[in-house]
């Protein structure tokens, strides 16, 4: 079982979004059968088996072993991943296009960049797995607390300038055998309260996101 799998097939995405099947996938981080899962999800063994077959057809569940019990063969299955991400490729006709309206201060543009990131990295993982090669990636995840909106804006400006200097230093358009790499730098508020909790009064200030890329 892998840690995260990307779903880019529309039919598989639809199957995974069914509430019962989503519960089965969560339960199948450890191997199980229709019989063992029936009590857990409150359905008959026959109905659980029906859902498991659907998940298996779309590659979300795989057979681990078969056990013979009298005249019955018990199929032991397991989810193919501990968690799943649905790629925007599953909705290709309406997938966001960050090239349509670039705006560094737009939260929706940041979302479009994130959607492209999921789509492209998901496709790269699929290709590298098929080729039996390691995918070279790098990511940083952290938090910073700003004293004011002005500090946040200054940080974003300095960060953008620093990243652009690094890109200019290392980007070589004519390098023989070189490979393009996508670079995204983003800044957004952290979620620190439940969705139904009223927001505190904050000093007004623009939201900030910064992105630069060595590939178009």
What would you note in describing this structure?
This protein has 216 residues and is of the alpha+beta class. Helices cover 39% and strands 13% of the residues. A hairpin with a 2-residue loop joins strand 2 and strand 3. Helix 2 packs across helix 4 and helix 3 packs across helix 4. The C terminus is likely disordered.
Helices and strands in order:
Elements: E1 2-7, H1 10-17, H2 19-27, H3 34-41, H4 45-57, E2 61-69, E3 72-79, E4 81-86, H5 107-131, H6 149-170
Parallel strand pairs: 1-4
Antiparallel strand pairs: 2-3
Helix pairs in contact: 2-4, 3-4
Structural features:
alpha+beta, two-stranded parallel ribbon, disordered C terminus, two-stranded antiparallel sheet, 216 residues, single chain
User: What's the overall average pLDDT, rounded?
Assistant: 89
Sheet/helix structural class: alpha+beta
Oligomer: single chain
| Strand-residue proportion | 5-15%
The main β sheet shows up as: 2 strands, parallel
Low-confidence stretches: 204-216
Q: State the end-to-end CA separation.
A: 34 Å
What's the number of helices? 6
Using the alpha-carbon principal axes, give the shape: extended
**H/E topology pattern:** EHHHHEEEHH
Number of strands: 4
Helix coverage percent of residues?
A: 25-40%
Order of adjacent strands in the largest pleated sheet:
1-4
Return Rg in Å: 23 Å
């Amino acid at each position: 079982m892998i840690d995260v799998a990307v779903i880019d097939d529309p039919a598989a995405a639809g199957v995974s979004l069914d509430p019962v099947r989503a519960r089965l996938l969560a339960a199948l981080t450890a191997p199980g059968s229709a019989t063992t899962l029936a009590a857990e999800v409150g359905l008959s063994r026959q109905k659980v088996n029906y859902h498991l077959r659907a998940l298996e057809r779309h590659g979300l569940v795989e057979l681990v072993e078969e056990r013979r019990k009298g005249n019955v063969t018990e199929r032991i299955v397991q989810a193919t991943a501990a968690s799943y991400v649905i790629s925007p490729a599953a909705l290709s006709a309406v997938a966001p296009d960050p090239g349509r309206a670039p705006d560094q201060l737009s939260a929706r543009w940041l979302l479009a960049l994130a959607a492209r990131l999921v789509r492209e990295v998901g496709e790269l993982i699929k290709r590298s797995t098929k080729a039996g090669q390691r995918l070279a990636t790098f990511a940083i995840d952290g938090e910073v607390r700003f004293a004011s909106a002005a500090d946040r804006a200054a940080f974003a400006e300095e960060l953008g300038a620093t990243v652009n200097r690094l890109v200019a230093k290392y980007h070589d358009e004519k390098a023989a055998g070189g490979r393009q790499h996508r670079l995204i730098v983003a800044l957004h508020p952290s979620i620190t309260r439940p969705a139904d909790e009223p927001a505190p009064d904050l000093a007004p200030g623009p939201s900030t996101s910064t992105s630069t890329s060595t590939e178009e």
